[in-house]
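User: Sequence for Lysyl oxidase homolog below. Tokens please.
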Amino acid sequence: MSLSLGLLSVSFPLMTSLSQTRAWLSLSFSLPLSLWSTQTFPAMQPVSVWQWSLWGLLLCLLCSSCLGSPSPSTAPEKRAESQGLRFRLAGFPRKPFEGRVEIERAGEWGTICDDDFTLQAAHVLCRELGFTEATGWTHSAKYGPGTGRIWLDNLSCSGTEKSVTECASRGWGNSDCTHDEDAGVICKDQRLPGFSDFNVIEVEHNLQVEEVRLRAAVGRGRRPLPVTEGLVEVRLPDGWSQVCDKGWSAHNSHVVCGMLGFPSEKRVNTAFYRLLAQRQQHSFGLHGVACMGTEAHLSLCSLEFYRANDTARCPGGAPAVVSCVPGPLYAASSGQKKQQQPKPQGEARVRLKGGSHPGEGRVEVLKAGTWGTVCDRKWDLLAASVVCRELGFGSAREALSGARMGQGMGAIHLSEVRCSGQEPSLWKCPHKNITAEDCSHSQDAGVRCNLPYTGVDTKIRLSGGRSRHEGRVEVQIGGPGPLRWGLICGDDWGTLEAMVACRQLGLGYANHGLQETWYWDSGNVTEVVMSGVRCTGTELSLDQCAHHSTHIACKRTGTHFTAGVICSETASDLLLHSALVQETAYIEDRPLHMLYCAAEENCLARSARSANWPYGHRRLLRFSSQIHNLGRADFRPKAGRHSWVWHECHGHYHSMDIFTHYDILTPNGTKVAEGHKASFCLEDTECQEDVSKRYECANFGEQGITVGCWDLYRHDIDCQWIDITDVKPGNYILQVVINPNFEVAESDFTNNAMKCNCKYDGHRIWVHNCHIGDALSEEANRKFERYPGQTSNQII
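Assistant: Structure tokens for Lysyl oxidase homolog:
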């Protein structure tokens, strides 16, 4: 075979097969450059360097024309539809793999609206940007509003598309959004192998402040975490640098403290630090910082970076120093004196529900004694930061919309909240009082707040598990001598203790708390250093729970009887529809001959055992219960199907021995009647419009309650009652508790109880004022329990 390329004409040996050609090329490339012309082609003379570049071109042509298609590669193949598009990540503050998504089309850069934006769309865009996948996405212009066109709106992708042009949308340039709704993506920091980024433009290569910290100037080895006072340092590409204090203001300190998880700042002794600075060497990287005090990040402030050739840095100045005031949750660990903490002014009027980590959750506000949610319309970082600081955290890291922290239930109190960022409370921000038609719980607003670094995650670890989310719990203890790791006795270890362990690990909720860990290897750690752990479930670390640390008492010895956990970022959240209980409650006198199965399942009062069976009757308070799953994971029985118990009388399986407790209480809390309901049929009775049923009990089917669905126990089925035969007339409290033994983990146990006022006169019962346990203010709850049955009654 002979080819002619301008001045260079060469002849190749004729190859009889593709394999011979590949072998020849492999040999040719492996030969030294000096031997190519004399050994491979003896007739050729040495050629110049520029001629060798033609040789490279020739060989590339041979690879593509003679050798066929290359072997499969993970490098993305750019479709023709994407050839005319270019992509970039913009905005600040951000890291190289995250930012506002911008697309250039027809020579004009534009953004994407966050309406209907999903993680699947983020996957497609991250691959367009050269990353393997997306780990998250943002809304409401988290990285700042863009400019120009909004190219895409209502973008809908399945996640498998090779180009964003294959996703459904309203069409290019057709949008009803503003740049306050610009979408962003957070990609996995892993590039696609072989990705050609000719269509990806990285913008804003200027220096950015990615991270801020306080470095204690004195007593660094002895001061407890979190650090609340010290030199301000920013992380730049070449390392950590100090900030020049010229022009430094309280507004700047307010922003820095917010980033570090503190709600406010206080004055600092600058004279002391200036004297100290004269004896130390400093590396200044930032100056001219001017914040308004409402920014969520230092990068949003006006500031200047020192250039590499600046020799005189911060002349006459010193490193900026900040002192922050921790919130109530972190005041004790930081060593703050009690008198320095402001006293709470009455009951809090804002709270977070449903978050897997401290400082995050669905925003709920208290109005007229009742808790309700906030609609996400116009919800932004300024409003979210007001909530975070009001609750004792720092500024907001994210303002969440679309019920990202689960849907609430009941009233929606606020909408279109517009804060300046300086308000002391969300209620001080201009807002719209909402009506039922304005918003739904699918639009509940949420927040993620900046938190102080406490270091508690370094004092606990998991070992032996199949993933980082499970394993045997090991804790670090101080004691005499060096720090060492040890195990926790499994006695009495349960869901509440496991929840605290998972929270301390930063792994979210607890799926299971295990008392035996036979299948997880303990490695070299065999000593049990903690026992008798009892938590309420709200603690930040196991150290805050009651426990034995000096005198270990463990009934069962050995590493296989130590505590273990399985953690998860999501959890279910069951909530009883309290209004339905009130609407369906009534009394029935049921003959004993119809209650044999109920007696077998222990659904009657103890006095029924001595009754004259089958004659006589039992007086039953009956009602329906509708149990919703408002969490972010399905509610599943703890036990697998292999351990469910068959009950021949009713002809069904029990997946949980006790699913609900029904009690009649006196005003002082004394129980006068009780009932319990086994979960003989956990299934999806009905679901929201966009949710499909997953669980049904027929034919030994899987049991559970899907997110967005509810399980209905009708008033006319067995055991859906309380036996009140022995209850005397009077005023009482009806209490229903779901998942009373915490057998299955939930994101929130405080809303598992429902209470009603009831007045019984011996013949009829009045039930009213039914509400979830945490739905009312503290004052309203005290009033409820003080005067049960004394308000205006409804005859049932």
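The first strand starts at residue 2 and ends at 5.
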